[in-house]
Each structure stands twice: as structure tokens, then as C-alpha cells.
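Holo prediction — zinc ion.
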Amino acid sequence: MYRYEFMRYPGGLAKAVTFSYDDGSQSDVRLAETLNRYGLKCTFNLLSSRVINEEGLTKDFIRTEILAKGHEIATHGEYHRGLDVARSIEGIRETLNCRLGLEQEFGVIVRGMAFPDRAVNKVRFPTEYARIRPFLEELDIAYARTVGGDNTNFALPDDFLNWVPTAHHKNPELMNYIHAFLTLDLSPSKCYCAARTPRLFYLYGHAHEFDRDGNWELLEEICEKLAGKEDIWYATNMEIYEYIAAYRSLIYSADGVIVYNPTNKTVWFDRDGKCYKIESGETLHID
Ligand SMILES: [Zn+2]
């Protein structure tokens, strides 16, 4: 019998890095250019009202420098109204209209979200979260990024509609967090068996803050530290969500010996220190 099984990212990796930047301002041009140079992946959270009127980014830029470069676009409300303050029907329109606007403009499915304005958080706003969560589910929102304390354990969310990032780029502890993440060794010989969960470094912010604060060199420093590592998977928020969904869809025999992958993705997992790869449609017999 095995003791523990943990998901591993594509390639059998234990760590991933993702970025999430909001509002679609003109500063996103420099952000996208920088991330593209480093091969980092970002989710750009956009307001459909601004996108349609090209306030901030042009549609052409979103097509060629964001979508075509492998980044994701996600909803951030039609008009950026806080879902905790807006009445439910207004929140529903905010979210649905943003989805419809972005999807119809760019011909892609948009199911990701970052809470606009005041980030609703399950712990800080339990009543509002309980009211909002059902309509996000009904609107087919797959995940929603919130804010709420630093996720210093680099943990993946148990509730994707309450996805707490690692830190904002202005966090004074940021470089310490990056160092802790990069030096984290999850190999069987270095890490206690029950602690070998997959980890995610999730950075968020607004590109216009780099302009306002005059510190674009901070972004360069962050990218330089995080990019180009062989033991890290670089992915958008949705790529991470969809990969985890595939892992969670694996089907097991009662004793765990037989594993079947009904999804369209190749999936990796670690079982007591040994890495397994299971192709789409494959059935694995593990002795
Ligand atoms: Zn915003």
C-alpha cells in the first residue's frame, strides 16, 4: 500500500508560477512586453466596457501581444463594481456582460475572474461570499482571484472561487517569499512525505502601479529571479485550473492500484516519491 499521492504539474514538476494583473490599463503594454521577454505567463483581468471602447489597450494589442503569446484574459467586471456592494442582480450583470463582451470580441471562452474593486474573501466577507458564490457558479466562472493575507505556504486553493494569491508585487516581504519558493526542495529525501504537495507562486497587482511608483525595475528583478527555471511550470491561471481539474478527474480502483485518465490531458503524479505519467485515455496498473 502507498501512503501519499500528490499531483505533479506537467513534466512531473512540483512548482508553478503564475501572474495576475488587473484593469487593462496602457501600462499593460510594458508589462506584457516584459513578461514575453522572460517567457512568463499572465492572466490579464479586463473590464469589457473599457476593452470595447479601447480605453487603455487596443483590441489588436490584446489579440497579438496577450492572447497570441499564450496569456489569458479574464473577467474583472463590465464596470469594475465591487460584487460585495452591488446588489446580486447587478453583480450578475457585471460578470455576465464582461464574459459576453470579451468572448464575443476575441472568440475565446472566458471563465476566469478577479474580483473587481474590494476583493471579496471567504474569511473577511463570509456573508457576502456566501451570497455571491452561487451566482458565480451559475455563470460558469471557474475560478475567482481574491486577496486576503499572504499565501506563504504557496498552497493551491481548495475553493477556486476564493483563490488567494501569494502576494502583491509591492509586498515588503516579496523577495523573501521568492527566495523561499525557489529554494523549496520537495524531493523525497529533502521534504517530509506529507508535505510534498505541489506549490504555486502566484503574483498579482496592477501594471499602472509600476508607472505610478516609477519602479519598473522591480518587475525586471522579479522576472529575472522567477524565470527560466527547469523545475518550474509557467502557466496562466486557467491553465493551472484546468490541469488540476484533470488531475482531480482521475479515476482509481478502491485499492488505488489501477488509475484511469478519462481527460484529454497527460497527467503527472507522485506516489511515495515515485513520479508517474498517465496519458489521456490510459489505464495504469501500479504495483
Ligand atoms: Zn481592478
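READOUT: The chain has one domain: 5-249.
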